[in-house]
Amino acid sequence: MQVKIADSWKNILQSEFEKDYFKNLTSFVKNEYSTRVCYPKGSEVFAAFDACSLDDLKVVILGQDPYHGKGQANGLCFSVHDQIQHPPSLINIFKEIETDLGISYPKSGDLSRWAKQGVLLLNATLTVRESEAGSHQKQGWEEFTDAVIRKVSDEKKDVVFLLWGGFAKKKVKLIDTKKHHVLTSGHPSPLSANRGYWFGNKHFSKTNAILKDLNLATIQW
Fold first, then answer.
1. Where along the chain is the active site annotated (predicted)?
2. Which superfamily does CATH assign the domain made up of 7-214 to?
3. What is the pTM of this model?
4. pLDDT tens figures, 66-116
5. Helical H runs in 52-109?
């Protein structure tokens, strides 16, 4: 089965595309997109991989579900297209960057600028029905994205994994922590952030400190 995904990823993920679960997932997603309004648009389902090649990858940020509001999701976790109002989690991410790095709040919520610098912005589930959060969970996407995390762990070294919230923290079992760097904190959603589990984690400066120690270019957040 042919999946339109960047070549650097296709080479290590081809075996997943040929498994029964992925074939079933493909059938489910095709049916959903043909009968309902779903996000992101079809050409952006694998945008996280297209925007950040495996060779360039330095940082992984894990999200759970794409945004399910009209025009929001663009295939990168926490990211929205330009001119789209910033969702609450993204606002809190930008607020933390402001205080952590002393830079001004950005106008654009499109995080492809991070992806181009080597940040894989990966949701556990890559598609969703409009206005129905979690509607495409447990259909096979999680099995696929778990395989992605394992492959990154196996194929790379010294990647910085940012695991925000309980869901993302469970993914640590897929990562070889002896050869990678894992930073954890609460989720940037208002529920978690307002309880004091997000603000002050300094993950953006800590990530850059790790990259600097490795003699790698830091991320312009």
1. 65
2. Uracil-DNA glycosylase-like domain (3.40.470.10)
3. 0.96
4. 999 999 999 999 999 999 999 999 999 999 999 999 999 999 999 999 999
5. 88-101
